[in-house]
Amino acid sequence: MALPFAVQARRAATALATAAVLGATAAPTAFADSAAPAAASPQLPAGLYGTKDPQFDGVWRQSLALLAQHTVGVRPATSAVDWLAGQQCADGSFTAFRADPAKACDAKTMRDTNQTGAAVQALAALGGRGEVVQKAVTWLKSVQNDDGGWSSMAGAPSDANSTSVVIGALAAAGEQPASVTSKKGSKTPYDSLLALQLGCDAKEGERGAFAFQPKDGALAPNAYATAAAALGALGKGFVVDPAGKDVTEPVKPLTCEGGGTKQAAADPEQAASGADAYLVAQLDKNGQHLLSAMPGAESRPDVGNTADAVIALAAGSHGAAAQQPLKWLEKNSADWAAQHGPAAYAQLVLAAHATGADPRSFGGKDLVTALNDTGPKPAGSAAPSTAPEKDATDNDEGSGVWWFVLVGLAIGAGIGFLLSGRRKKNQL
Which of 188, 255, 271, 347 has its CA 20 to 30 A from that of 397? Predict the structure, then answer.
């Protein structure tokens, strides 16, 4: 998801990101795997999901939780929606967490496109917060880079994860991403994304992959970025309409007959197909899961990024190709989700939804109930409402564990992702 898919996201990653963010950028994406901080925040705000310190991923994990609930027909508590909307700065942006929303955002506030994009996707889906959504979209447009893309932090070089999260937000708000152009050069978000895809001059096994950002002018394949970009190139957000196992649209790798150029994809749809083909090859190579690409991390299965890949394949109408990694998730995600909490449960709910699986019976786990238990009591479980009703019995005690994904930590250092969700997210 992006989800920053958060954190991401988001999709979301850990405080690991902080040092690198000073010299680079972080992008939450609801799409990766990371360790959670040990200490819990002593006084958590009413309405917030999870029990851990929200300073790096509060908005990201809240957005994913609300979006996942809405997607499966759960009406979130009003306190939860109010908390998210109340995190917005006056200029329309969101940061990861504002302990005191009554205190105005200032120049030191780290405004974040991933957190903002995730909030837009959630609040647009829930309805009833049109002014908040439009202010956020206006801010996102105001910090678009000249190449048409976005970084996690305004002014830093564009990255695939952040650009994809914003594309999803624009689409959720009713915008046409291809019509949102930079002030200089009139570049679109798709121009920025496709420039980050490895083409015919790359090694055969790397063609179709996306880089998080260029490093020293070169592109390196990155699974986090590839899964996010496969969604972004199709103009999709974190929520993907179900693609059942009988949906057998073939995965088409990039072809380079007759030579080829640096960028092999002629359009965003072809770029997404090439990205999906790269993901399928990596899944097949590793036993139907992706490996952690976190800086300094040992080579191990990455549950979050595997879920991202499943969603990306479903978005490309490759439901059949998503079935094997989905089965791997059903067998191997329970402990991970219990450890990482609301954003992790939300990510799995969205993966199940995208593939037509039942999130209430996922590897023997009821993901929806587990997600609900990390936050205030839902207002209802009927069909999604355009304006969540007030629930007088809101329970403000969340039982989840803090989670967020880091996908982008380095411009000069080459480290990768920050936050949750999506979460923010990485260059290796």
Answer: 347
